[in-house]
Specification:
About 20% of the residues lie in helices and about 30% in strands. It has a four-stranded mixed beta sheet with strand order 7-4-11-8. A three-stranded mixed beta sheet has the order 3-10-9, with helices on one face. Strands 6-5-12 form a three-stranded antiparallel beta sheet. By secondary structure, it is α+β, with helices and mostly antiparallel strands. The chain has one domain: Nucleoside Triphosphate Pyrophosphohydrolase (Alpha-Beta Complex), CATH 3.90.79.10. It starts with a strand and ends in a 23-residue tail after the last helix. The relative contact order is 0.23. It contains four helices and twelve strands; from the N terminus they run ββαβββββαβββββαα. The chain is globular, with a radius of gyration of 15 Å.
Length: about 190
């Protein structure tokens, strides 16, 4: 497989170029386009994943269902569907944009930085995940309220981006299956279809 390319962006979300994914994650990671997704079943449980132990950023960390990078020119909802199939063997029923302008910067203890403009999606599925060991160490379904309370209280160890996203998702309402999707026009320019 050839090295994945990522879309570099400025602070306003405009594309400024592309770069190989393997070359950008370091101590001075440039802002780049990504996505984050929360997979739910019909009971409102959220699928958590533990990142594979060999990942460069946050190895073995528990996080939300799936994160990734769109390929240059790829619609974000298409990237979500592609990565969920590859990482978790999931067929997606529905992909909804929730937080169109989420962005974060986090630094690991070893100095490696993650710096992403990272719209957040809700995904609904009807089947169990089949994790790809190249990407995911293990998965667990958890009731949304239990998960969210654990993240907000700090009791649940979770990735830094997920820790920032959950309070914003809670502002959308108590029932994750009833959250009103965001307008795709609110996506950053580099992420708009």
């Amino acid at each position: 497989m050839t090295d994945e390319l990522v879309v570099l962006v400025d602070r306003e979300g405009n594309a400024t170029g592309i770069a190989p994914k393997a070359s950008i994650h370091g101590t001075d990671t440039p802002l780049h386009l990504a996505f984050s997704s929360y997979v739910f079943d019909s009971a409102g449980r959220v699928l958590l994943s533990r990142r594979a132990a060999h990942k460069l950023t946050w190895p073995d960390a528990w996080t939300n269902s799936c994160c990734g990078h769109p390929l240059p020119g790829e619609p974000l909802d298409g990237a979500v569907t592609r990565r969920l199939s590859y990482e978790l063997g999931l067929d997606v029923e529905r992909v909804d944009l929730m937080l169109p302008a989420f962005s974060y910067r986090a630094v690991m203890e070893n100095g490696i930085v993650e710096h992403e403009l990272c719209p957040v999606y809700r995904v609904v599925v009807a089947a169990d995940a089949v994790p790809n060991p190249d990407e995911v160490g293990e998965v667990e379904w958890m009731p949304w309220h239990e998960f969210a309370e654990g993240v907000v209280s700090g009791r649940l160890p979770i990735s830094p981006w997920c820790r920032e996203q959950v309070p914003l998702l809670l502002e959308l309402g108590d029932d994750p299956l009833a959250w009103a999707p965001a307008d795709p026009a609110a996506l950053p320019p580099a992420a708009r279809p």
